[in-house]
Structures are given as structure tokens and as C-alpha cells.
């Protein structure tokens, strides 16, 4: 390998290294400082700090050390952990529109076009209208009970199909869901 080939192969490596250094070392200004939390490592931030089981024990320890509101950063995703019922009620109930959000799904939301549907839409006036319409249709226990007979009949039919032809379970599910989907 001559010097030219060695230089050509090093250029992408140097560019990637510089980009990673830039992203990790140059702090972007935030509108407000995050609450205190465990200090993370470069690049992976608090990934190693995330509990693998029984997360409430780690969260309780963090609350004792950092206070009732703890911030961690996991691979660039900032997570706020609320360790006090008072703060949780205030932030999640009283100010839910301010602090609520949903992830944006590129494939199903933007490319397929389901991003404006009730399940994927962000919290806004359209979402509030969807919620109001759904609450009017299925929002109370008595309204759900009105459809109980339909659910029972459909489940009975599905189970009958399973019993008569158990190996055809995929076809049974497909028929069941296609009929449900077309009834909407």
C-alpha cells in the first residue's frame, strides 16, 4: 500500500472521529438546565447507569442523592424521572399538555400517512378533538358494556374456527381482523 492509498483510507476515519468529538464535546445550549442526575460517559452518556432489573431501586437511590426530579441521558435521549408523587401529579396531570409528547415514527407516521391518526398524532387540538369523540363513543363503562355482546359473539366464532381447523390459525386471525377492520 503506497502513501496515497493510506491517506485515502484515513480521511473517512479522521472525518468520523472529528464529527464524534464535535458532537460529544461541544455542548448545545438548552432553553433551561436539566435537573441533577448521574454523570454519564462520553458518547453513551448514562447507558451503563440504566438498571437492568428493578429500576425503582436505582431511581430511589438517585432520588436520595440528586433529589425528587432526576435527569439522565441515554444515547442522546433525555429522560426525566419523577420520584415524588407531588411532582408527578403536578407535571403529568396539571400540566399534561406541556409535558406530554409521543415519539415520531417516520415509517408509519410520515411515510405511510398514519401520523395524523388518533394513535400517533401529537398532543394538540386535533388530538383533543379525537379524544372527545372517542370518549363520547366508548368513554364510559356502560358504553363499553353496550358492545359486550358483539365481542362475545366474535370471540365465540373465532374459537369455533380454531376448534374446527387448528392449523389454520393464521387464516382465522386474518379473517377476524379483516372483518373487524371493514366494520370500522
Automatic annotation (TrEMBL):
Sorted UniProt keywords: Heme, Iron, Metal-binding, Monooxygenase, Oxidoreductase
Gene3D superfamilies linked to this entry: Cytochrome P450
Pfam families (alphabetical): p450
Cofactor(s) needed for function: heme
Highest taxon, organism lineage: Eukaryota
Protein's UniProt keywords contain Heme: yes
GO MF terms held by the record: heme binding; iron ion binding; monooxygenase activity; oxidoreductase activity, acting on paired donors, with incorporation or reduction of molecular oxygen
Entry similarity comment: Belongs to the cytochrome P450 family.
Protein name: Cytochrome P450
Species whose genome carries this gene: Clathrus columnatus
Amino acid at each position: 500500500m503506497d502513501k496515497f492509498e493510506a491517506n485515502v483510507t484515513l480521511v473517512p476515519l479522521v472525518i468520523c472521529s472529528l464529527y464524534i468529538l464535535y458532537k460529544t464535546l461541544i455542548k448545545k445550549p438548552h432553553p433551561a438546565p436539566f435537573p441533577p442526575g448521574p454523570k454519564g460517559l462520553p458518547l453513551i452518556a448514562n447507558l451503563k447507569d440504566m438498571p437492568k432489573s428493578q429500576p425503582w431501586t436505582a431511581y430511589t437511590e438517585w432520588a436520595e442523592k440528586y433529589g425528587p426530579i432526576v435527569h439522565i441521558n441515554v444515547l442522546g435521549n433525555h429522560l426525566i424521572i419523577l420520584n415524588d408523587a407531588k411532582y408527578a401529579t403536578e407535571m403529568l396531570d396539571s400540566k399534561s399538555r406541556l409535558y406530554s409528547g409521543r415519539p415520531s415514527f417516520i415509517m408509519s407516521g410520515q411515510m405511510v400517512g398514519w401520523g395524523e391518526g388518533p394513535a400517533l398524532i401529537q398532543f394538540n387540538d386535533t388530538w383533543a378533538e379525537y379524544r372527545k369523540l372517542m370518549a363520547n363513543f366508548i368513554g364510559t363503562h356502560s358504553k363499553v358494556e353496550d358492545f359486550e355482546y358483539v365481542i362475545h359473539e366474535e370471540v365465540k366464532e373465532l374459537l369455533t374456527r380454531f376448534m374446527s381447523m387448528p392449523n389454520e390459525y393464521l387464516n382465522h386471525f386474518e379473517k377476524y381482523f379483516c372483518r373487524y377492520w371493514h366494520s370500522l
